[in-house]
Amino acid sequence: MDFLEKIKSKLIELLDVFNPEVLFYYLAVAGGMLVIELLIVGWPKSSLRRIFSFNGSVKTDVAFFMLDVFNLYSLITVLLTFGAFHVLARVVYEMSHFDLIYTIPGLPLQFLVLFVVVDLKNYVSHWVFHRVDALWKLHEFHHSATEFCMLTRYRGHFLETAMKRVFDVIPFAIFGSIESYLAVTVLVEMHQLALHSAFTSNWGWIGRYVLVSPAAHRIHHSAASKHFDRNMGNTFIVWDRLFGTYHPPEHEVDLGVEENPYNKHGLLSDILSAYKRFFKALKASK
């Protein structure tokens, strides 16, 4: 019964479309970063200019951002997959809840260990979605942006997000969950927005050995074949260094994917196209 109650509680949460806390969070963090970027790079290069011009792949970026702002993205994800992956993630969590985090002394150290493990999970999940052809057909949708606007950060196919729920729950199933630090959550979100912005800095030695820099992430989104499957870290570039997927930044790269089928016929067409390409690749793999 406790399991069913948790599922019910999650559904009620998803139906809370006009959640003022969610709305404020996205508008405050993304809005603040858009202003910071504008002040640093100027209007001609800014994401705000791209948003107001509302051309090309930016239309899709804005649409997905608005779905997040109004708490609709998660609801649509559940509806389109009938909640199957969310239920599976909950089952995995309940069946392998080891609470190893409590073997680590002190909340700050517990948080640090869990944060690093979650980031490693993000790297592995990202690697899988690049290397398995059917999964790439879904993740390719994110890479189909042909120019960086900060809101490209929110561009992602619903089915991919649903599937990643199963990956996402694994660290918490093993270690257990602890109180999250809001400040860290905000900083991580700001970092993700910066990675998809007009910023092109490589951040010096920090970008080479510690954190993923905007320049490194541009390589990840490059349409050039030599850059495929490179710089897949989410927060730390360390994983790319360790597992041989690091590629040093270059001055100019063209963004997007080869023979890009997206950004031509509207958002709904793009979403359906990714579904078709996924099932076609899945069938071909059998």
Concise synopsis of the structure shown:
This protein is mainly alpha-helical and 286 residues long. It is built from 14 helices and no strands. The protein has one domain (2-199, 256-284).
Q: Secondary-structure map with pairings?
A:
Layout: H1 2-14, H2 20-41, H3 47-53, H4 58-69, H5 73-80, H6 84-95, H7 107-131, H8 133-143, H9 158-175, H10 182-195, H11 204-209, H12 214-220, H13 238-243, H14 267-284
Protein model, in words:
With 286 residues, the protein is an all-alpha fold. The chain has one domain (2-199, 256-284). It is built from 14 helices and no strands. The chain is globular and about 55 Å long. The model has no long low-confidence stretch (mean pLDDT 92).
Descriptive tags:
286 residues, mainly alpha, 14 helices, globular
Distance between the termini: 38 Å
Count of distinct strands: 0
Shape descriptor reads globular
Number of domains: 1
Number of helices: 14
